[in-house]
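Annotators were shown the component list below and the corresponding predicted structure, then asked to write short factual statements about the assembly.
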Amino acid sequence: MAPLSGIRVADFTWVWAGPFCTLQLAHLGAEVIRVESSARPCVTRLLPPWADGQPGLNRSGYFNQYNQGKYSLALDLKHPEAVVVAKDLVRHCDIVCENFAAGVMERLGLGYEALREVRPDVIMISMSGYGATGPEREYVSYGPAQVPLSGLSSLTGYRGYPPMHVGISYGDPTAGLHAAFAVLAALWHREQTGEGQFIDLSEWETTIAVIPEAIVEHSWHGTQPERNGNRDPLMVPHGVFRCAGEQRWVAIAARDDAEWQRLAHAIGRRDLADNPALATLEGRLEAVDMVERAVEQWTSQRSPAEVTETLQAAGVAAFPCYDSRDLAEDHHLRAEGFFVELDHPEVGRKLHLGIPWKLSGSPCSIRRPAPLLGEHTDYVLRDVLGYDSSQIERLRALGVLR
Amino acid sequence: MPNRSALEGIRIVECGGLVSAAYACKLFADLGAEVIKVEPPWGDLARQRGPFPGQRPDPNTSGLFIYLNCNKRGVVADLSQPSGQELLGALVRDADLLVHNVPPSRMQRLGLDYERLSRANPRLIEVSITPFGMQGPLRNYEASDLVLWAAGGLAYLNGAGPGSDDLPPLKPFGLQAEFQGALNAAVAALGALFARRKLGVGQHVVVSVQQCVASILELTFEYYPYMGLIASRLGQKPIQPLDFFECRDGWIFVCCVEEHQWQQLVELMGHPDWAELEIFRDRLSRARNWDALKLLMQEWMATQSVQELYHAGQLRRIPLAPVSTMGDLLHSPHLSARGYFAVIEQPGAGSTTLPGAPYRLSRTPWRLRRPAPRLGEHTAEVLDGLARGNAWSNGVTLEKTRYGTA
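Structure shown to annotators:
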């Protein structure tokens, strides 16, 4: 039996951060009901990649990846009657998640105080870019802008180059995972005491939580670490090195002096292994340019796979910079059972990424593909809320269920 | 029960090095769980990373270590020795969770064997944060944070940029793969605690950090299964502006991808003639002609102040963001109004500012209750407790404090 079986979540989230939170709850077996509307579909339903190149609300790989295992209720929250349905849903839910801009749920009549009246022990989390309080709480927050806002960009980049992004809207999943933990902690508290509560989460703050070294340095010295590419203060070499072929790269780290010795021997550079000046971290830091050139001279003649096999056989941390095809075709990840291929009514069987952890005693799995928009409207209204068919038809005729 | 902590009563033994296990346990500790951290005699590697006050390396004042290990007690035990394993065994007999990031190849040797430990305490949940999982053929591969960032597919997505394709894929600052492993482990661990309420027994949780990294590839991974395409860090973005600009006093990130936002930005820039050009008509053409547009915008941006532009843009609902420096964050009026940063008095390091509560639970506070332990600070205290039959600070078990449970 899945850990959260019997727990139901009213999921008002959208884009990436919020749905990534509720994805974790779905992984653990909660019944997650996404409240969506074709009047204002989730941004990720409107973005590629499209299955087989054809656009469509149910055909986006972005949506279908991060909404696996969830249900979908079509409800136009702008319709006055929708608030009643939404509150009925919350009455039957343990948890409410939302990541609209601050204040939107209140304006819809679905703020925490209103929801508490229908479900006194409800746990509600509001995830926003800036949090529910503070002078900038109503500022607009987009995932890509959260990375520079958080401070991560001013610390990330090549030495002497401008600040850089990190490649994805990193604050979104980082906020989503913190949110899932907070919700579960609140649920734990409810199980002990019967009390629900409200959780205020700011994506800005959860992203600062993962750069503590830089915050502490500034608090003590008024400085911050310089952008330094892929280098590390305690590991030399430590970097991403060119391999043979077009844009093929391998990551290598020598975590201590002994690993450096193994690396130098493995790349056939006994001269470097025997050089006492390079035997210590301090010495290699001095000679870091030369050490990196020596490594790249060797890697650039070889494929990432060959480099990795040779170095791993010598006990050196190394791995190719995988692209999406490398991941999709990786035998190890297949043996780990990481991938999910379920029949989706519109896109068929496509490869998706699954759950990155395993529970030995209560196995978790993705039991259904991402929902079509409104796929479970009738199920939710009839089986969860107990509406009869005339009620459902009336709401449908009024245009509430779209 | 005002001020009861959400995770009060949960007992955790941590054998963590660097970030992953330690941050997972910090999330529990800051919400009230009791954590005893077991370190080898040479200490957790995070003690070596710093930063250090006055740049003087000292295992008891590393900034990274302090952040990750406040609220925990620390004991020293050499798990490669029988006496160390005996201490570990005694601690986990009354624990709910054992959380570690010892690689699979060394787990048995250090006594972190779930079968054996669970015989003494069937309610124990062991959480193993591993580089590559424990099933596949690469389970014993060596790894570091950077190596896992590459193995999960994220390194390939960042770095270089138009005209500089020779630069390698680029890691983000810090130990981010480890943080992702930590967050997933914490969620899965709490999941296993809920499962224990149904099953009555614990279980073994195995986290693969490679898979945690692959789980956050945003929309890029699915390009391959859905369209046969491979997302890369190279080439132009499909829509613009989404880029960095240098102002007169720092950097700003211009995120301006909706038409109404662009119109507002054009107005803010004073309606320059070039904004009317056909080649900048919509976000797709702005991306196709980004080299030209970026130069034109940069000229205007260079005259602006970051903070003024940020607020002026936000008043027009343009999601601009400053490229915050640490100083910007520590002096942000918004973050201070929210009371975000936490200050702890750390012996040997003095007053230290740390990232604070990542979430605010209205009834159950996030709290820093004690500084990070000196190496071995609580060894004697914990051994003494064990000798008296209980190493944990309160002898009340979870069951006894439970109220009205399902």
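Statements collected:
1. Chain B has 18 helices and twelve strands.
2. The CA atoms of residues 398 and 404 of chain B lie 13 Å apart.
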